């Protein structure tokens, strides 16, 4: 991937880090695992469960043979193709003509083809889901809010359909707290609003806040458009599909608020509230809207009029790269204290900046200092937290903020894990292995036999 940034000009060599930081001892790392009890929907039942969720919606007013616009987003939702395909198949069995439209705001570089490609990357294309994909950035204004006369817009293809059914995961949002956060309502307001609607919502949120805006615009959309309901998804700590539920229009706010409470209980989090250094192997839009889930890292430095989470307290974050599916979108990299040079080489700055401008969170794409190697990143992070004792420093290395079951941990944290019922020690601490300054060990979820 071509980059707008020069790795060589911006990354600080390991030798320069060593000279500046002096003698900085590195801790050994062991492997620990969080003990989670989950009950996901079996994989071979996902499509049928999605179809049943769709069938539970009030479909009486959809004409025979009517077109149903099925909204799908850009997040890394487990089993997304199977869920969308199950809804499409059930709609077809009932005699309707479903099509899928991208409901993802400005993602995909705010282009129709970019959004189609993002769906395909997530496994959603015409072959896998069995219907047409209609991707367009054209929107239609369908009304205005009563409170502040804000224009309410929606995807033109969806507006022209006989019925609209968004499919989305309900989960805590990265930028704000409210009774309704990420889920069906947000997909209607920001996802279905495309770049224009997303930009309008985030602009007004500077003074109004998303917690107040999303419910009001949702109600306006439900009044003006043939939204027959949505399919809500809940995922467990392992990011497996735990619940598929058809939510009628009357439940978009109340039922979604109830599902959000459960989502908070089941979201994966770091098992420690006090961490000196967090190393993340990757970040990306498929991991979180802000690349790194702000609820997991306890940082929200770029949110609009929103307080940061109280916990966890993490002194330094070092991020090593981007996911392939994020397509160079490095939104949220500003939350890191240091990044690897590889991350700079992977950034597509136009895509990243368009996302930041749309969301009015430009501080989230500020460039952190870049280091040449993993060892340099570790030294830089550890040397700036005070006196470092390898036996007491609290360091965690995780694949990303979504995959948190298996983690590398320093001896102090491994010792704590031995005393806790919700953690188990998988591998005892040993010296960190480097190959030309880079970690020689795989991500934690691939280590010692994998999760």
UniProtKB/TrEMBL annotation:
**Region span, Disordered:** 429-451
- In Swiss-Prot or TrEMBL terms, this protein is called DUF362 domain-containing protein
What organism is this sequence from? Halosimplex pelagicum
Taxonomic lineage: Archaea, Methanobacteriati, Methanobacteriota, Stenosarchaea group, Halobacteria
